[in-house]
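Section 3.1: Structural characterization of target chains.
Under the original work plan, the team committed to producing a structural model for every single-chain target entering the pipeline before any wet-lab resources were allocated. The record below documents one such target. The sequence was received from the expression subgroup and is listed exactly as submitted; it comprises 191 residues.
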Amino acid sequence: MLMSYIWVLMIAVSMLFAAINGNLAGLSAAVMDGAAGAVELCVSIAGAICFWSAIMELMRRSGLMQALSRLLNPLLRRIYPVAFRDPQCAADISANFSANLLGLGNAATPAGIRAAARLQKLSGSSSASNELCRLVIMNTASLQLLPTTVAAVRGALGSGSAFDILPCVLLSSLASVSVGLLTAKLLERRR
């Protein structure tokens, strides 16, 4: 709700200053150019997202996703001990983490939502459990080996080497996940 007010305020201030400066035509042209650019970007990104989602589905059907999940299970079992008592919740968390690892946040969302709902049921409480908070942290920070969505945006905007950001993305996502999980652990102990 607050963001709606902020956007309306920004638009109103822009229109006010454009009117004061006698540049309403320039504002109108900029609005139309921005809208056209946004549609263009969305269409070009949609192709890349469809491609990587198809790769994710092929991985799932071929068993590669399950193999990646089994490889990650020892680590995830330590982060989510209660969730891994429920096989479906464990599968959803593994699928979510695997998709995020491949930079497919949009493909990771359904598994993350299912895992969050199951974690809420497992906790039996109306408030978020520690494991649910860790799931949110892991999804928000999103450790990524392949930043496919960011690379798609870079490619759509004309980058010659869309994946040259790999080292920076890996380092920053590793740091954000580590800080998030450490902070969660510290806050758990404060309770």
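The chain is about 80% helix and 0% strand.
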